[in-house]
Design goal:
The complex is a heterodimer. In chain A, 60% of the residues lie in helices and 0% in strands. By secondary structure, chain A is mainly α. Chain A has one domain. In chain A, helix 1 (12-40) runs antiparallel to helix 4 (96-119). By secondary structure, chain B is mainly alpha-helical. A two-stranded antiparallel sheet of chain B has the order 1-2. The chains are: A mainly alpha, B mainly alpha. At the A-B interface, helix 1, helix 2, helix 4 and helix 5 of A face helix 5, helix 6, strand 1, helix 11 and helix 12 of B.
Chain lengths: 148, 327
């Protein structure tokens, strides 16, 4: 029963979660600064020329995606979901990498604490954590991105 | 006398910030631009102007958010969608990433200090993040003017909550309910000001979890962080101490906003030229805000945040009604 004792200190899972979150956040932020510098300084050429970006951001997202596909990308479909991975060599789409890291670190934290929860026979919290990890992964997968 | 002088100076800064956010000629330009043409007229060589303006405004917003005790997202979406030429789809996507980054930055420290409770957050996050996905999908499927109208109504609702909601440092919880007992949602923390150890537990857990269906949905639909709703539910409804509620709410945003942010990212609602200056601006503003906090007058700032949000809410309503052809 001692494993379920309430203490002033953060639990093992809480500390593990905090450490992974901290590292992921720092890595994401550092990469964001680097990729944005590569983009705005023109070191990595973007899909949409810098001087034309402002011509697109007032449009609804589906019109924006159609327009950049027709004008620059000429792909079979506008770049939604994980299509940015194929365009990572372009300055603007390179910036999706840190955004994906910042948006994905929580899923890693969740998956990391699940084994510990089950090992300590904390089944209810284990199931809740696993279910949330599945839901977050589904959101990240792009399967749920519908609309318009 | 010196204190008076200092408060006078700080007051001056607030008035400047308020004016900067609401009366700047930038807004006139933005409104003119969006009214005249759906595509803002910016000279090719001046492409950097809007990102720089965004950086400056989000920097000011970051200061005000810290001083006013609100999240960056709740200020970002109504102000940027109301006064900048960016489409609401991109503003909501960026707003979620702004709120998410703030929560990611604060989360590890709050968890390590045992102020944010993982056990309290996990069940709440399951419901809130699921509903944030639904909200994001609904928000992206609805016509923009409907979302704009609902956003205006929601922001004015948040103003009403801020005006009326009370807080309780350590609410009286006579007995933990069955669900929170089964999930062992409880803890101990040391109140630094009194050095007193506080044993806390929660009650009305089913009702609290039910509230997060609505909160998660709204967070996803409008791209708002949901601290304005999380804290009253955790503190007043479920009976968690105020400090635990505020810290857990901030950490909770890192989960709720993750789920909604993925929907917006996968739909393509991310323009790096908007996202990165906004994140940098908010982060730098938050650092300055934390330093100003020591000499700040919380009541004054709170009123200022309420005024800004009220104005931005009315602007969103006006835009929605105009786009609907009602005005």
């Amino acid at each position: 029963m001692s494993e379920h004792q309430i203490t002033k200190e953060a639990t093992q899972e809480q500390l593990l979660y905090a450490n992974i979150l901290e590292k992921g956040m720092l890595i994401g932020l550092i990469i964001m600064f680097i990729t944005f510098a590569l983009y705005v300084l023109g070191i990595v050429k973007p899909v949409i020329p810098l001087e034309q970006v402002s011509s697109y951001w007032a449009q609804p997202v589906h019109e924006y995606l159609e327009a950049i596909n027709n004008n620059f990308l000429h792909m079979d479909h506008p770049p939604t979901g994980w299509a940015w991975v194929a365009l990572i060599g372009k300055g603007d789409f390179l910036n999706f990498l840190p955004i994906a890291i910042l948006s994905g670190v929580t899923i890693v934290c969740y998956l990391a604490i699940v084994p510990g929860l089950f090992a300590r026979n904390d089944k209810a919290m284990g199931i809740i954590t696993l279910a949330t990890a599945v839901i977050l992964s589904l959101a990240a997968s792009g399967i749920l991105a519908v609309g318009h | 006398m010196m204190l008076k002088k200092m408060f006078g100076k700080v007051g001056g800064i607030y008035v400047f910030l308020l004016c900067s956010l609401t009366l700047s000629p930038v807004w006139a330009l933005a409104s003119e631009v969006s009214a005249a043409s759906p595509v803002p007229v910016v000279d090719g060589a001046d492409w950097w102007k809007w990102p720089v303006i965004l950086l400056v405004v989000t920097f000011i917003m970051g200061i005000i958010a810290v001083l006013g005790g609100v999240g960056g997202g709740v200020l970002f979406v109504p102000i940027i969608s109301g006064f900048f030429p960016f489409h609401l789809d991109f503003v909501r996507g960026t707003g979620l990433l702004v709120a998410l980054s703030g929560a990611l930055a604060a989360g590890p420290g709050l968890l390590k200090a045992n102020l944010a409770s993982l056990r309290l957050a996990l069940p709440v996050a399951l419901i809130a993040s699921t509903m944030a996905i639904v909200g994001a999908m609904v928000g992206l499927a609805l016509p923009t003017h409907i979302v704009q109208l609902c956003l205006g109504g929601t922001i004015l609702g948040i103003v009403a909550i801020m005006l009326t909601a009370k807080k309780s440092e350590v609410p009286e919880v006579p007995q933990a309910d069955n669900l929170s007992s089964a999930l062992r949602i409880c803890g101990i923390y040391t109140e630094a000001s009194t050095n007193q150890e506080i044993n806390w537990k929660v009650h009305r857990t089913p009702a609290g979890l039910f509230s997060f269906i609505i909160i998660g949905f709204m967070a996803g639909m409008f791209g708002l962080g949901a601290g304005w709703a999380n804290v009253p539910v955790l503190n007043l409804m479920m009976g968690a101490p105020l400090k635990i509620s505020v810290a857990t709410s901030k950490f909770l945003l890192s989960i709720t906003d993750t789920s909604a942010a993925w929907i917006y990212v996968n739909k393509g609602c991310v323009i790096p030229m908007m996202v990165v200056p906004s994140l940098i601006g908010i982060m730098l503003g938050s650092f300055v805000g934390v330093r100003l906090l020591k000499i700040a007058k919380p009541t004054f700032i709170r009123w200022m945040v309420i005024a800004i949000l009220g104005f931005a809410g009315l602007k969103a309503l006006h835009k929605g009604l105009t786009a609907s052809g009602i005005l």
